[in-house]
Design brief:
With 553 residues, the chain is α+β, with helices and mostly antiparallel strands. 15% of the residues lie in helices and 34% in strands. A hairpin with a 2-residue loop joins β5 and β6. It is globular. The structure holds fe (ii) ion.
Amino acid sequence: MQFKTIKYLSFFLLILAVSTLSLQAKSIRFRAMWRSNPATSMVVGWDQVSGNNPVFYFGEEDRGKNYQAYPAQQKPDKVMMAKGMNNHFVRLENLRPNTIYYFVVVDNEGVSRRLSFKTTPDNPLQRLSIVGGGDSRNNRDARLNANRLVSKLRPDFILFSGDFTADDNAPQWQRWFDDWQMTLGSDGRLFPIVVARGNHEATNKTMTDLFDVKFGDAYYALSFGGNLLRVYTLNTMIPSGGQQKIWLETDLKSHRNKIWKIAQYHQAIKPHTDSKPELNELLINWATLFHKYHMDIALESDAHVVKWTWPIRPSREPGSEEGFIRDDEHGTVYLGEGGWGAPLRNNNDDKAWTRNSGSFNQFKWIFVDQYHIEVRTIGTKGADKVAEVMDYNRFVVPQGLNVWSPSNGDVLTVVNRNAPPPPPEPEEITGIEDPQENPDGLGMDADNVETIIDEAPPESQVKKENDHGTINWLNIDPVKKTVKVRYNLTAKSKVDIIIIDNKLQEVTRATLQNQDPGPYIKTLDFSKIQDGGYLIIIKANGKVRRRYRVKKG
Ligand SMILES: [Fe+2]
């Protein structure tokens, strides 16, 4: 009798196990995009391989797969059979800015994996992390490495400037979206992608069918962080003049208030390999507008080499080369050129205005706040060895990340010369203990003051200085290994300059007694300090006045 019960019970458990398996909904190949304001909207797409009547359940609380507990639901707004996939899209609107939403897709067969996405901030006070690249078409290992790195870096979004697959066919696209799932965070976070068409996408329709791009010509613009940033996606596969040029100029004109502008498009105007043609038509139609309306960065692909330029503008004057000349004040920085998995080419076509070039699989990692844009080139090989960042420390280079370090420096910085004064903020340093008064070890005292050199700040910069301040990033002078810090004293003060490492240990400190009121620029010598990330704190009469972050190495 007892045996019989056990037998029935195990039979019952077997049935239960089988039915649980089949309760997994057949929605796969997830992707996130935008058709409107990235702070308040999201498009989520997926391939519904089987099952009927899928419904998208979502909300701000993580309810796991308990779909009935999610407060909102939406049916697909668009269904598009394309490239052998049953592409479903929900177009979510009226979302809250800078907010994580959790979701599941439920159909008559079951419930999908629980995933999440995050809307972007709606104001310029928060920094953005962006991955920019393209050309993922042939080498799947390289593509998977780059995808895994996206997962590790947890960016606000990805700029992808074309050439996804080699032949734009169904099996290749299905594999591409399978591989794209590797970009998801380990917690199921889906990072949105902003897509441009490359020459390996046979039609604009590929972009609208698979990514729900809003405009049939596949060129469009999106604004991030209120007036922080406008991103232009252009299409090199249709005429660059005519309607596209008119649209670009009209949009640039009506968004002069944006602090930063970034453009992405597939084909490089002046490729850094000699096996690709010069595209003077793009120079005339687009680069002249980039200069006229202060485009800060242009992200290019297609040539499968690595390059970044000094700031440049179109010119034929003496000193120019191939129609561009370096102009540090008013130029556009061109980044590129592909490298997400397409066959690499030789970087054998540098110009006078090339900052550095190379030939390896890579993408660009871009930080944008209202004071600076910082760009790093990330070698994507060995992604498995890279530590995953957390949402709160995603602007710190994680352990194992392969940051390119060429002769002209590993961080490309664009400075906002019209930056507003930093807003006041509490003097307490969240999450960081106040440094000890008398640390052991590498403590710097009055003897070390010679590492700090006085310098009179230029008038124009003095006016922008503020005693408070958000944490700004500083770059180490690659040759002298020094950084410059600024602060302003409103009364006679005792000033402490304290350097803290990323384990929150004080590395060194200088104390300057009886400093007169006024603006100061001090040069700090980092030559004897080992590689790593540091926080520099400037205190006046014991109160924090300025904080800076700096990374050496
Ligand atoms: Fe291409």
